[in-house]
């Protein structure tokens, strides 16, 4: 574990990174090392935006009348 920390804190210039990234955008990777090289920018393909869906016209109808629920009356059965 100490070796990994040491390599991270003090990277040696002898490490070759195959997938090095050009963070500053100047076209060079691993600058200042014997492995410094130019890179070509590969453009990533972007997905085409989906065509907007056609909206179907909505038929407007007359507003619905709200009716109150019918009240039911319970008949009481009393014994006389």
Estimate the strand proportion.
5-15%
- Averaging pLDDT over every residue, what do you get? 77
Main sheet: which strands, in order across? 1-2
Report the end-to-end length measured between terminal Cα atoms: 97 Å
Largest sheet: 2 strands, antiparallel
Sum up the overall morphology in one term: elongated
**So how many helices?**
1
What's the arrangement of secondary structure elements?
Layout: H1 2-9, E1 28-29, E2 37-38
Antiparallel strand pairs: 1-2
Quick overview:
With 80 residues, the protein is mostly loops. The chain has a domain at 1-41.
Describe the protein's architecture and organization.
This protein is low in regular secondary structure and 80 residues long. The protein has a domain of 41 residues. The chain is 10% helix and 5% strand. It is built from one helix and two strands, in the order αββ. The protein has a two-stranded antiparallel ribbon with strand order 1-2. A hairpin with a 7-residue loop joins β1 and β2. The longest helix has 8 residues. It starts with a helix and ends in a 42-residue tail after the last strand. The relative contact order is 0.10. The mean pLDDT is 77.
Feature tags:
80 residues, little secondary structure, two-stranded antiparallel ribbon, 1 helix, 10% helix, 5% strand
């Amino acid at each position: 574990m100490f070796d990994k920390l040491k390599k991270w804190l003090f990277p040696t210039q002898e490490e070759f990174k195959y997938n090095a990234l050009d963070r500053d955008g100047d076209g060079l990777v691993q600058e200042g090392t014997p492995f410094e090289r130019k890179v070509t920018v590969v453009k990533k393909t972007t997905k085409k935006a989906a065509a907007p869906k056609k909206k179907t016209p909505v038929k407007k109808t007359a507003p619905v009348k709200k009716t109150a629920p019918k009240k039911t009356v319970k008949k009481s059965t009393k014994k006389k």
